[in-house]
Amino acid sequence: NETASRETYRIKGETVITVDDYTSGRVFEDALSYSFYPIDLHDENGVKPKHLAHGVVPTIPRRALIPKGSKNIMVAGRCVSSDRLANSAARVQASSMGMGQAAAVTAVLAAQLNRTPAEVPLAKIHEVLKQHQAIVPEIA
To answer: Do the bridges between strand 39-43 and strand 46-50 make them parallel or antiparallel, or are there none, so unpaired?
Structure first.
């Protein structure tokens, strides 16, 4: 068996996913992927999961993958810009894979279009993600 860290550093992104954003199922205007896991904070007293209400599905926004003030870098996974409680849920493997796929598509499109990741049209990112059978958030 190996010991691994559950929590590590998180970036300060162009936006920060808060526990209220997460537990309310906020659909960000620049949502790239979903996250489905309950709040899962571990502390010295054990695990205190807070399950999401039926039908609540949080989203991960592109701005949470872009470090504040940067131009050509994105992150994905447990270092996503989020508060501690939101990160306790968003850091799991399935959510990290969705973020990673979305970040990769965004990076490729940014290079092809000679734009920064923030400048890539969201509709184009969603289109490519759907071509690869990703589950893409529906934005109102």
So the answer is: antiparallel
How far does CA 29 lie from the centroid of its chain? 13
The rounded radius of gyration (Å) of the Cα atoms in the chain is: 15
> What are residue 47's phi and psi, to 5 degrees?
-100, 135
In three-state secondary structure terms, 59 is strand
Using DSSP's 3-state secondary structure scheme, residue 6 falls into coil
Q: What is the mean pLDDT of each run of 10 residues along the chain (140 residues)?
A: 75 97 97 95 81 96 98 95 95 95 98 98 98 92
In 3D space, the residue among 89, 16, 119, 42 whose CA is nearest the CA of residue 98 turns out to be 89
Q: Which residues contact 63 (CB under 8 A, 6 or more apart)?
A: 13, 14, 15, 28, 30, 81, 118
Q: Which amino acid is at 31?
A: A
Q: Which residues face 33 on adjacent strands?
A: 60
The two structure tokens encoding residue 139: 């934005």
Enter the pTM of the model. 0.92
d(CA 4, CA 139): 36
Give the position of tokens 């599905």. Answer: 57
| pLDDT given for residue 101 in this prediction | 98
